[in-house]
Amino acid sequence: MAAGKTARVERPVNAGSPLIRKCQGLDEMRACVALQKEVWGFTDIELVPLRMFVVAEKIGGQVIGAFDHDDLVGFAFAVPGVRDQHAYLYSHMLAVHRHYRNTGLGRRLKLAQRDDALSRGFDLMEWTFDPLEIKNSYFNLERLGAIARRYNVNQYGITSSPLQSGLPTDRLVAEWWLKSKRVEHLLVTGNNPEFTTVKTMSVPAQIYEWKAEAATRNQAQQIQERNRVAFQEAFASGLTVLGYRRDPQGSGQFLLGMWDDDQRS
What does the radius of gyration of the chain's CA atoms come to, in whole angstroms? Predict the structure, then answer.
C-alpha cells in the first residue's frame, strides 16, 4: 500500500464492509500518518510521526486499521499507560476517512480495541475528547458507555487544526471500564443503565457556526469557559458525566450523576 493512498479513496461505501485488523509493516503505518493529516489538518510538526506508530505496536499498544480492499480507511491508535499503579491503554487517536463516516465504522474500531484490550488483560481504556463537539460527546458517552470525571484545560495548547478554530484545547478524559456492568449493559441493550441526573451542562448547536467565523468565535469561547468552570466544580464535588442528550435542534447536554468505583467491574 502506498503512503497517502487514503486521500484517493472514492468508492461507494457499504456500512460495515471494511475489514478490521492490526496494521502490519511500515507502509500501513505510513498510511495511518497520511489519514491522520487528512482528518485533522495538522501541520507536519503537530502530526504523530511514523516512529510513534511503529513504537506503539512494539511496546504493547494498538495500531488497528480498517481496510477496504488495499485502502486504509480508518485506524485506532493507543499506547500503554499506568496511573495509580493501574495499567491501562490510552487511545490517542481514532480516525475515519470522510467517505466512511456515519457508517458505524468508528464504533467497530473502538469495539475492536476493546476486544484486543480484554484479550491481553486490560480492563480500562482512556482517551480525551473536546466537550464542545456534540456528536463525539454523544458517541463516547452513549454509544460506548464511557464516563468522564476529569477536565484538562488547554491540553495541547493552541493547535493548527481547523477543527479547533484557534480555541484552547480543553478536553474531558473518557474512562472506558471495559468489563463494567455499565458497558456490558449498553452492549446488550443499546442503552446505558438508568441513573439519577444531578446536574446538566449544555452546548448549543450553533457552536460550530460560532467557531468557524472570527466575528462570532468569542461566543464559542464563552460557552467553553462557562462549561469549564461548571465541570471543574462538579468534578470537585464528586459528580461524574454519565450520559448525554441531544435535542431535535441539535444541541447537546451532558448529564452528571454519582459514580462508585465499585461499578468498574
Answer: 18
Whole-number Å distance between alpha carbons of 242 and 182: 10
Question: Considering the domain 1-111, what is its CATH architecture?
Answer: 3-Layer(aba) Sandwich (3.40)
Q: Are 140 and 129 in contact (CB under 8 A)?
A: yes
CA distance 118 to 115: 5
Q: Which residue has the cell 473518557?
A: 174
pLDDT for the residue 263:
86
**Least reliable range by pLDDT among 36-40, 162-166, 227-231:** 162-166
Whether pLDDT at 105 is above 60? yes
Model confidence at 210, in pLDDT bands (50, 70, 90)? Answer: very high
Parallel, antiparallel, or unpaired for β 19-22 and 62-68?
antiparallel
DSSP string of 118-164, one letter each residue: HHTT--EEEEEE-TT-HHHHHIIIIIS--EEEEEETTTT-S-S-TTT
Domain boundaries, the chain: 1-111, 128-265
**8: pLDDT strictly greater than 70:** no
Let me know: does 97 contact 5? Beta carbons within 8 Å. Answer: no
Q: ∠ CA 121-123-126 to the nearest 5 degrees?
A: 125
